[in-house]
Amino acid sequence: MPRLAISPEFLRGLGALTRPVRRDVAVAVRRFLLNASAAPHPERVRNCRDPRVATLRLADRHRGVVVRQEDVYWLLTVLPDAEAWAYAQRHRFGVNTAVGIVEIWDAEALERIEPALRRASRTGGRPLFENWCDSDLLNVGVDAQLLPLLRLMTSESHLAAVEPLLPHSQYAPLAALARGGSLAAAWRELDACRSRVADEIDPEDLLAALRRSPDRAAFTADAAELERVLMLPGWCTFLYPPQHTYANWPAYEQPVLITGGAGTGKTVAALHRAALLARAATGPVLLVTFSQSLATELSARLDLIIDDEVVRKRVEVGNVDRMAHRIVAEAEGRAPALVSSDDLAGLWQEAAVGRFSSAFLLREWEQVILAQDLRTLEEYQSAARPGRGVRLDAEARTTVWEAVQQVVRHLRESGRRTLLQLASEAAGLLGRAVGDLLGDEAPGREPYRHIVVDEAQDLHPAQWRLLRAAVPAAPNDLFIVGDPHQRMFDTRVALADVGIPARQFRLKISHRLPAEILSWGVRLRGGGPADGLVAGNAAMFGYRALDYGARPMVRGYVDAEAEIAGLVSTVAEWLEEGVPTAEIAVAARTSDLVRTARTALREAGITVKVTSLHGMKGLEFRRVAVIGVADGIVPAPDALTPADEDPTARAHDLQRERGLLYVACTRAGETLYVSYSGRASPFIPA
């Protein structure tokens, strides 16, 4: 019986077919795997560049392209007949001689570009790769057939022109060298393209290369495995090399932090890490994030990855607030009462004194006192105040402390607490328990052996102290993913300061965003560094996309009514183009705009997700419309600290508002539409 290796490109092609054709293709693939009657048989392709290539007739006027080695068929794509034959003739397939992964080459396109490069080389200029001999290039995995083209290049623009035609494992090290990097820099780029080290590499052994390429092939030995690959989203099956490496590393001796920009697959790595730990059965696993809505989404996605009910039960999915609430409730024997936001605002208004407004006092409490778990005036007097721009002398600190304590006393006397107070108290309860974390002699402690944290940038220091107390310091204790540039709340913390000396790794490639949306989003966000999670600042340098698409559409309207009409028209066009409603989202900064857009779309017979900018966190869509991005709405005036009160806090508020818009815009994997009426927000790139 044949064995199948399914390519993610095949699944994308399958999803683009009409439903009847898609059904016929799936049936034909099952028959081929099972060697059943009426199964398609491989047909050789004339004039192909790789003799291992064949096609399979999978449906009426549709063929699959396969590469065969021994009894394994790598199913690459499904296309209409003529396109399938052209694809089979145009491509060749090889093995990277340095790292042993599979590579797909558009050989025909490279042949066509050679005359243009040869003409360009005659105009003069120093050869781009003159500092490296052929053996140097071959040692970093450059394909021997590519060397003649490289010797024609005299500028980085020549290399950029052929980037879409090259495997990423070829382009990445060459780009490092073209920028003036060393061979060591090229090797670092190449090393990021593999998920495991190969002891020996046979350039003719495509099968072994496929097994070293988890992002290019999923092996299916039987009908059940095939069904799983065909039915599940691609992220359940295919992991890009860095994702695969970080998620499947056997043992981390210390906490691990994975950072990366939008679309780099941080959450996917976290989900697969939680699944790996659950299958290892070394103890209970907590997969945690900062909000319950995101926790619900994570739980549903984890259900897709783990199909074994026993294994799935080893992973608890939740948010930090619920965890803190449960710990305090168990310790006190009753559910703790929470103060409402309106009541809390009233208490801070009452406490405001002199030049210290209610907003200033609240931020000082959350960002300094609760963040550092300060218990006395003496501790507060000597504490650093990172991120706070107004200097306070000893007298001023005493005034602030007394005002804060007034609110704390009111809360205590009324038996109410805030969520951050609950987190701080829960951390204290766990910290005071005696004995082994997992032992019976430590009642009240959370019996987690592993904790996986998603959206780490939005957790408060009190919540981090709770998580640190909830898992023993041991190998594979904390696996953390986040991005300081996507922070939606003012919660800056270096993990080392809360007892989590994490080893950091970075994901640099966005696999969701086309380059046009990514570059626009980076300019919107501001490409400068962001603080938090690690000491110092995290930069966006090296963050890039491999795919290309349409530029974001930015539309200005004369008034709000025209803007809403434009939104309805745009979404209607998307639906007419065949985009499913589940793949479209609309977002706005204010609740009024959300309600207006939802009503207008509903009256037009359109039902798509309409939510706030905050509500877009952690979600993905093909097409996204962000409306109301006007001056006076984004940034939201009431979310900004007055400059005369605390200029540093105002600067942080502006960056947080930028981050909020950036998060919403980078949910779009295909098309981004941004609109405003009147004057555009100052955040919109020129």
Automatic annotation (TrEMBL):
Q: InterPro entries, from UniProt? A: DNA_helicase_UvrD-like_C, DNA_helicase_UvrD/REP, P-loop_NTPase, UvrD-like_ATP-bd
Report the domain of life of the source organism: Bacteria
Residues that bind ATP, according to the entry?
A: 260-267
Signal peptide span per the entry?
A: none
GO molecular function annotation: helicase activity
Q: What class of enzyme is it?
A: isomerase
Q: What chemistry does it catalyse, as a reaction equation?
A: Couples ATP hydrolysis with the unwinding of duplex DNA by translocating in the 3'-5' direction; ATP + H2O = ADP + phosphate + H(+)
Give a single Pfam family match.
Answer: UvrD_C
Keywords linked to the UniProt accession: ATP-binding, Helicase, Hydrolase, Isomerase, Nucleotide-binding
Please state the Enzyme Commission number of this protein: 5.6.2.4
| Domain UvrD-like helicase ATP-binding intervals | 239-525
Q: Report the PROSITE patterns cross-referenced here.
A: UVRD_HELICASE_ATP_BIND (PS51198)
| Protein's name in the database | DNA 3'-5' helicase
